[in-house]
Amino acid sequence: MQKTSSVHIPDPSPVDRPGGLFRRLSPATILMLALALGSAGAAFSVLDGFLWRPLPYPHPRRLAMIRERLLKTGLLGSDVSYQAYHGIAANLPAIRAAGLLDMTGGLATFHGIKHFVFGGVTTPSLFRALGAPPELGHWLSRASGRPGGPNEAVLGYGFWKSVFGGSTHVIGQTFGFESARWRIVGVMPKAFYTIYPGADFWLSRKLAPTQLRDTNINHSMIVRLAKGETLRKLDSALALYRNRLVARMSPPARQHAIEDGLTVNAIGLHRHLVKLYLGGHPEFLLILALIALVLLVIATANSLNLELVRARHHASDLAIRRAMGASTSDLFRLLLGESLLTVLLVATGALTAGTLLTGLFQALIRSALSGPVTVHLPFQIRFGETAALFTATGSLLLVCGIFAAARAYTGRESLLAPLLHEAGAHGTAKSARLLRRGFGSLQIIMATLLLMIGLLLTQSLLGILGRPLHFHPENRLEAMVLWPRKLNATRFWKEAAPALKTVPGVQSAALGMMVPFNTLMSSHSVIRAPSAPHESLYVHAIPVSGGYFQTLGIRLLTGRGFSIAEKRQGAPAFILGARLASRFFHHTRIVGQTLGQKHPVPIVGVVSSVAWQATPEKNIAGTLYFPLGTNHFHTTASNVILHVRAMTSHLEQRIRSTLERAVPGVAITHLVSLTTLVHESDRLFESLAEITGAFALVALFLTLSGIYALTAQNSLNRRQEYAIRSALGATPASLSHLVLTETVWMLGVGLAAGFALSLLLTHLLAGALYGVGGINGPADLAGVLIILSTTLIASWIPVRHAFRAGLAGELRPGAA
Amino acid sequence: MNEAAPVIDVRGLTKVYRTEEVETHALTGIELSIQPGEYIAAMGPSGCGKTTLLSILGLLETPSGGEYQISGTPVETLNAGERARMRNRHIGFVFQAFNLIGDLTVEENVELPLIYRGGIPRNNRRERVRAVLDEMGMSHRLRHYPGQLSGGQQQRVAIARALVGEPSILLADEPTGNLDSKSGEAVMELLAGLHERGATIFMVTHDPHYAHFAKRLIRLIDGQIVDDAETSETTFEAGLATH
Ligand SMILES: Nc1ncnc2c1ncn2[C@@H]1O[C@H](COP(=O)(O)OP(=O)(O)OP(=O)(O)O)[C@@H](O)[C@H]1O
Ligand SMILES: [Mg+2]
């Protein structure tokens, strides 16, 4: 019989067992980092598409839009008047070139074939300002912008391809549009767009000297800054211009300008486009970036924690290797190989996740923007080289950082400690536990925060989706129609209305310059409050035909609708929306009051406040309706609304053919049901909810798997301790208690801090998000309960698992 | 033979380990009865099932077959919690690898069995811990961590921990296995002293010299008890000869 050798070397744990490099990797770390980095990469692609990818013009940073605004009235658009265009374009040295742009649409005739087209009417100088060279031919000539000059057109790339098959013979051909003939002089490249991308053409705008005094603020003005000029310098030059302008005004006009808060300033073209296309919700980008950042923090905390636990184990592995004669460089190479392989796997996973998630975003945004009226997005959202570089670099830095940090921390214990001391290291165990709990708490804080953001957004979106419309979209059809220039709205309707009413199935029909949830057409004005004559308000001012309220199902609250005289003979009268009415008259009797100083117009009724779009309008004070006949603007397009008994495609056909027969030359650009319009506009918000929801779920998953992996790793490492305690009489319950105390500790700290942070965030977002207030009992409670229960389950499972397999083996020598 | 209820009574005990492919019959048909106050040593070649037997006796593992009573109570039907309480009251363990908890001080390690017993006020526990450590000559190392002690010192702390709850029997698996001969000798002296004062001890050892400290020697080969007799020079030498 021999005495067994008493040299005891701690056995490496399964993960450390020398063998393939792959066995040294932690799948949990790789998965978590890849997922978080992939999400960050996708968020980066979205931000990149919106914010960082340059516009398709030379020196795009030097492009800006000039805005003439009446700050006190709520007129906060991005338009200018002809007067301002003239005053600014020619006289400001900061501006190298400036162009004016208007939207147009209608029927154009190419070789006898009619096409419904959409495009711009622009001063030729716009092309010089933008500076992008044409694909074919040349820009609009200077002469085409002067009165009496030729009518010229430049085609958009898509239109050129689809209608002309991309033929080069297109240059010099002519087409008919708005009772004039236009000669095609050029084609712009694919990526080119003015403010509204997807334009079919740009026509030359001729500005007559009489128009120079036009103060109507409804044209887009794009300028290119001279070299060395900045937006700030331009802004001060614009302020001087505004002061000169005000000084030259007549005294009453000057007083109005000052009271209305007339300002003129500039905004970068890029910024303008971002604001325009995010539909007034640029905070969405901020939230997206914030969520991606929180995800990264969660994954980092997660992985650091795991790697710390693993590094403590690796220390004994390294000690054994060193005892076997491995040199420092051998060990370094081992660690380097491990790190590099992890980087490689994380980067591959992150790139895959990033590509997939970006594709998901693309699809969501595209489906949100495609409706009966397709919106072309000028921003390209794709997982491009920059996003890939960002993700790959992120993988390298994060993995190396985490590994280095974990090793540096563990390295504080002597490398040989595991060999020298049977019972393992001591002392640092306490600080390691504190660190582990700290990271765990951080994860829970972040998860709570994200879940709360998710709930907050959902709550806000549900609020948007659920708010009252104050009109009936059911069984209502909306048709956008264009009629020949020789007609105006009243004459068009005189011919169309009787014909439409004869169509079986049509209950009533009306015409209005604005229809709820059709954002293509709107009608605005600035009016003065009678109660406070110094206060002007920006309002929807909508010319409507008789039967408009009845057809849309808008309720008349007090007074009456427009009388026959008002409708037929154009006697002026106003009907107010309830919101505007209460703003102007508070609680006094409204019907019988008048609006307007020079020509007071009687108010004959008040109707309920219609929701014109999905989100509440921020700058609009309310709505004002007036009879079609009193509208002084010549318009060639409007919305026809029909209340039908039931919606059928046959009926749609009948309506189209009836209109086309009744009014020769009319074009119907679209015919949709109002329910579809409402639904389509809800879709963007549903998409936003889905994106945030997806992120919040990823975050919750990351946190839970982190806590699971941590508890699992931890209970695996402490199996021997559990076995000893068990041998001394600890019951399974008391052992579970031992492990779960840690989870409960992390949950306490994490939930408290996470909840406090999310309250702070709610406070910050309250202004930006619709219907978001302070504490929301049920939603917050739900969030807390979700975190609480899932975390407890995530840490309970590995504990069960550790105890189910017997512990006796842990007590044998060498089991440490 | 003593007429009182045996501390340990095992009838036809078997243990089979099943892994994916192999079935290891670690113990077959073990019959063993240990009376209060006995000091038994178990010997046998490596892999013959000594540790397995000890683990089953100590309720760390469950047997595959047979009957087992501790102080007249059958243990097969006990649930995990009852087994833990039984272990806490009746069994004291001493391991070859000491198995002290590295994150706890000497004092805290020894206190553990009393904590798990429950209902003992802290002051009483600490008093008892100090008394036992004093007995083991370790009272000057109360605040040390196991990693700061020598192997022999760690084993003395481990014995103190095994004794502190006054168990019915002390189970020791190669308590001198990790110690040099001088420390080993000291540990054996300690156990002998405990036995003098009435403790029941079941010890596994590889060393014939240490086996001789016991009053009864069991020899295991291939999971079976092949010899069970009072120790004497003859059995000791016979043991050597058969090996
Ligand atoms: N968990 C297990 N799974 C499978 N087989 C096991 C397990 N534990 C022990 N064995 C086997 O059971 C047999 C008895 O092992 P045991 O540890 O009891 O031997 P031992 O007599 O204590 O040996 P040593 O003197 O070397 O400590 C051995 O063949 C061993 O391989
Ligand atoms: Mg053994």
**Helix/strand structural class of chain A:** alpha+beta
Q: Between the first and last Cα atoms of chain A, what is the distance in angstroms?
A: 27 Å
Spatially, the strands of the biggest sheet of chain B line up as 6-7-8-3-9-10
Within the CATH hierarchy, at the fold level, what is the topology of chain B?
Answer: Rossmann fold
First-last Cα distance of chain B: 29 Å
Give the CATH H-level superfamily of chain B. Answer: P-loop containing nucleotide triphosphate hydrolases
Which oligomeric state applies?
heterodimer
Brief descriptors of the model:
heterodimer, A: 816 residues, alpha+beta, 3 domains, seven-stranded mixed beta sheet, six-stranded mixed beta barrel, 21 strands, 49% helix, B: 243 residues, Rossmann fold, globular, disordered C terminus, binds adenosine-5'-triphosphate, binds magnesium ion
Could you describe the 3D structure shown?
The complex is a heterodimer of chains A (816) and B (243). Chain A is of the alpha+beta class. Chain A folds into 3 domains: 22-44 and 281-465 and 693-811, no CATH class; 105-216, no CATH class; 484-665, no CATH class. The model of chain A is unreliable at 1-20 and 413-428 (pLDDT under 50). Chain A is built from 21 helices and 21 strands. The radius of gyration of chain A is 35 Å and the shape is elongated. In chain A, the strands form 3 sheets. In chain A, strands 13, 14, 15, 16, 17, 18 and 19 form a 7-stranded mixed sheet that branches. Chain A has a 6-stranded mixed barrel with strand order 2-3-8-5-7-6. Chain A starts with 26 loop residues before the first helix and ends in a 12-residue tail after the last helix. The radius of gyration of chain B is 18 Å and the shape is globular. Chain B starts with 7 loop residues before the first strand and ends with a helix. The relative contact order of chain B is 0.18. In chain B, 36% of the residues lie in helices and 26% in strands. Chain B has a 6-stranded mixed sheet. A 4-stranded antiparallel sheet of chain B has the order 2-1-4-5, with helices on one face. Adenosine-5'-triphosphate is lined by residues 17, 19, 24, 26, 44, 46-52 of chain B.
